[in-house]
Amino acid sequence: MQKEILVTGARGQLGSELNYLANTIEARFKFVDLDELDITNQDDVNSFFTQRNFSHCINCAGYTAVDKAESDEETARKVNVLGTKNLAIACKENNVTLFHISTDFVFDGNQITPYSEEIIPSPISVYGVTKLEGENEVIKTMTNYFIIRTAWLYSSFGNNFVQTMLRLANERDELGVIVDQIGSPTYARDLAKAILSIITQESTAYGVYHYSNEGVASWYDFAQSIFLLSKTNIKVNPLPTSAYPTPAKRPKMSVMDKSKFRTSFNITIPYWQSSLIDCLKVLGDK
User: Which PANTHER family does this chain map to (predicted)?
Assistant: First the structure.
């Protein structure tokens, strides 16, 4: 029987990349966003699932406005916790495998070594708290799930750090970029390919996983690479976090250990600069 895959949050970065890659596997896809399915409405979600025969759901929907969440916790909680719970319940009742996308923001960033899945989360922002609570709703509701935490996501689609840097470079002669937060920039297309590979493998190695591109960078390093690789001439100044206060605290260290992911699925994870080259080429072709 052909797989039928529901993708929520279809207009976001990851949803858009999954749409772009949809014809690379043998499956039917249904891409939805808020205008077609409100995941915070349990009745809507239940009827949506019972009218169809989904084999998988990839939940890319989420409230991701990290700073805005500090003053709008109600909405962040509604989407990231209640919406996730509704999907998990519907997936369980209809025997659908759920891929739920989570974040490095579930950690406080105080560790000096990469975060493994065994580290107990300790979020320091409303966004991080609601994403962790969403994870917990999945874990307590069902068994056939993959929770994938990712970090520093960018794409040729939507708003993200890469596109923001390129836009600002056209408007300014110099920029200040944070130098004391480190992580692993992650090309959403790589993550999309990895998820589709797990589906194709028909893996049942359910659980919590970490996925980001290989390698480590600060935001400053990331910006410098964007400008170097795109041959953009602009002066970039390193800034400490203290010079750029934001409503939400960010983890200082967001590097995640991906060894469980590599071992479980035998998937090679590209180095972040290689993937940045690929993304910039796609943006150039656009």
Answer: DTDP-4-DEHYDRORHAMNOSE REDUCTASE, METHIONINE ADENOSYLTRANSFERASE 2 SUBUNIT BETA
Q: Could you please report the per-residue DSSP string of 127-184? A: HHHHHHHHHHHHHHH-SSEEEEEE-SEE-SSSS-HHHHHHHHHHH-SEEEEE-S-EE-
Question: Does any domain span residue 279?
Answer: no
Catalytic residue among 115, 127, 154, 220: 127
Distance separating alpha carbons of residues 139 and 214, to the nearest angstrom: 27
* HEC secondary structure over 62-99: CCCCHHHHCCCHHHHHHHHHHHHHHHHHHHHHCCCEEE
CB atoms within 10 A of CB 216: 16
* pLDDT tens, residue by residue, 13-71: 999 999 999 999 999 999 999 999 999 999 999 999 999 999 999 999 999 999 999 99
Residue 119's domain spans which residues?
A: 4-157+185-214+255-270
Helix (H) or strand (E) holding 237: strand 235-239
What is the tally of structural domains in the chain? 1
Residue linked to tokens 């390193």? 238
The reply to whether 286 falls in a domain is no
Yes or no: say if 112 and 68 are a contact pair by the CB < 8 Å rule: no
The answer to whether residue 220 is catalytic is: no
pLDDT in tens, 204-226: 999 999 999 999 999 999 999 99
- Looking up residue 24, the CATH number of its domain turns out to be 3.40.50.720
